[in-house]
Amino acid sequence: MSDDIGPAEAPAHPGPHGYSGDKAALLGRLRRIEGQIRGLQRMVDEDTYCIDVLTQISAATRALQAVAVGLLEDHLAHCVVDAARAGDPSAKVKEASAAIARLVRS
Length: 106
Fold this sequence. Notes:
Number of strands: 0
Radius of gyration: 17 Å
Helix content: over 70%
Structural class: mainly alpha
Distance between the termini: 17 Å
Shape: elongated
Order of helices and strands: HHH
């Protein structure tokens, strides 16, 4: 059984979140990645050479990883720092460590 928490099971964390200030930029990046994925679907539909498809999959993966690292940085800079100022960052540090572990496994 995996320790990953799905979106429906994720605990509620009241906002604003660390990424709130750059929400428009974050959404723009995710939309570009969505476009990359649609492009991959088109490539497969058009029987594009497999190495070219794999190259684009790698690019999409790197783009998602960059978004994930940015979100993690925001989490550390805001959520963990705020918890430390409040006196008990242990839960937020554990949460960040688990997120890092998931990123490293992917």
